[in-house]
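Fill in residues.
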């Protein structure tokens, strides 16, 4: 069982930056795809970025060039660096782990509790 704990959310002005983190309770790099999703009320959870077991990273077009996914293997931690933030990036951001880098949230097995990012 993998436990995921997000941190680092907050409020920022448009154009600013934030880095959110996802600490995993167990070593996941060799077994799972790790991903960031985001969700706003009334909408489905949207995949923002993912990294599969061989390190291949995918970033959604809506954040390409602004968001960067990275990980620290020694700390079992996944990061999402968010630059040039826009009001439409406002959402609750969730870390997820799954057997593969699926597009749909329902296919991921483990989830963190979420961290709020607000851009004004």
């Amino acid at each position: 069982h993998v436990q995921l704990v997000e941190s680092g959310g907050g409020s920022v002005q448009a154009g600013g930056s934030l880095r959110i983190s996802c600490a995993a309770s167990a070593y996941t790099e060799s077994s799972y795809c790790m991903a960031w999703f985001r969700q706003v009320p009334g909408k489905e959870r949207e995949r923002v970025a993912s990294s599969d077991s061989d390190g291949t990273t995918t970033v959604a077009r809506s954040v390409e060039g602004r968001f960067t996914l990275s990980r620290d293997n020694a700390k079992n931690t996944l990061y999402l660096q968010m630059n040039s933030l826009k009001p439409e990036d406002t959402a609750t951001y969730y870390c997820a782990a799954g057997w593969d880098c699926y597009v749909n949230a329902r296919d991921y097995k483990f989830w963190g509790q979420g961290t709020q990012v607000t851009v004004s």
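The chain has no helices and eleven strands.
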